[in-house]
Write a structure and sequence with these properties.
By secondary structure, the protein is an all-alpha fold. Helices cover 76% and strands 0% of the residues. Helix 5 runs antiparallel to helix 6.
Length: 295
């Protein structure tokens, strides 16, 4: 029936019109969804240049001559209280970089082992990593605090070990799917040339993992950088404050909050991740597709 309709010019025109209408509807729908996601970021940006009274009374208004305060909120947010913002920024950078480095290195090696060995232990380890993705953090957070304190993992230089445990599930899953698609003959040729397992991994396998390395790295950076709960539970927040924790403590006496300074610090936190994501979003799609489809 469809073939007969397409055989005539009128039928082809009707099908083309239907496809155009469908594409327009989808475009409008996704545009609305996009605006819904971007609107909170735009509101934070707009209110970071307004005084506190106008933020509380007219949140959606654009700054004007009376409400515009320039960079005062950014200066205030960076110098508020006895804990400088630059210190929180450094701690966030240290935790994020160390955590992502550990996750990428350890999980890529684990995924290579799982894919190439194929033993019962490797399969059990793989399913344990996948199972960890469905375990809610709330189930383990209280025992985690005690264990982290006993093992001295409650500093910015040791908390990446905990992030490795929580980030291993998704990373091993994605890496394993991609490693299975790699030709085994390349590794066999490297072994014939005298490469041991370590050299084979770092000189042959790891360069081929670049798409998944980039996508997993970006996803983990976004998670660790914005994470509030784990540092708040594990770290001594009087000594170590990450940026999300710093935002919470932008309070004055009696619980009053400087909303302008809070919005400014939130922009400090959002901008690096937004810029990173915009530049690397195509790699995320490539890496996820490679790990999910080819495996």
């Amino acid at each position: 029936m469809m073939t007969n309709q397409l055989a005539t010019p009128e039928g082809a025109v009707k099908v083309k019109k239907k496809s155009n209408v469908g594409s327009i509807v989808l475009t409008v729908l996704f545009a609305v969804v996009c605006v819904a996601y971007i609107l909170p970021i735009i509101l934070v940006l707009i209110n970071s240049f307004k005084n506190n009274s106008s933020i509380n009374t007219d949140t959606f208004a654009v700054p004007n001559g009376e409400t515009f305060v320039g960079l005062d909120n950014y200066i205030k947010g960076a110098t508020f209280g006895n804990y400088p913002f630059i210190k929180s920024l450094c701690y966030s950078l240290v935790i994020t970089l160390l955590s992502v480095f550990l996750i990428l290195l350890c999980t890529s090696m684990a995924a290579w082992y799982i894919s190439r060995v194929g033993s019962r232990f490797a399969k059990i380890f793989y399913f344990a990593c996948v199972f960890s993705m469905i375990v809610p953090f709330q189930m383990v957070m209280f025992p985690l605090v005690s264990v982290a304190s006993q093992l001295k993992l409650n500093t910015p230089w040791t908390i990446p070990v905990i992030y490795l445990g929580f980030g291993a599930g998704l990373s091993v899953f994605m890496f394993t799917g991609f490693v299975k698609s790699l030709p085994l003959e390349i590794e066999e040729a490297a072994a014939i040339d005298g490469c041991g397992p370590v050299r084979t991994f770092f000189l042959v396998v790891l360069p081929m993992l670049k798409p998944t390395l980039i996508s997993v790295g970006i996803l983990q950076i976004m998670w660790v950088w914005n994470d509030y709960l784990l540092p708040a539970l594990v770290l001594d927040i009087n000594k170590y404050k990450t940026i999300p924790i710093h935002v919470q403590y932008l309070q004055g006496s009696y619980g009053s909050v400087d909303m302008g300074a809070t919005m400014a610090v939130m922009m400090f936190s959002l901008l690096p991740i937004i810029i990173l994501y915009l530049f690397c979003q195509k790699h995320i799609i490539k890496g996820v597709a490679a790990g999910a489809v080819k495996g």
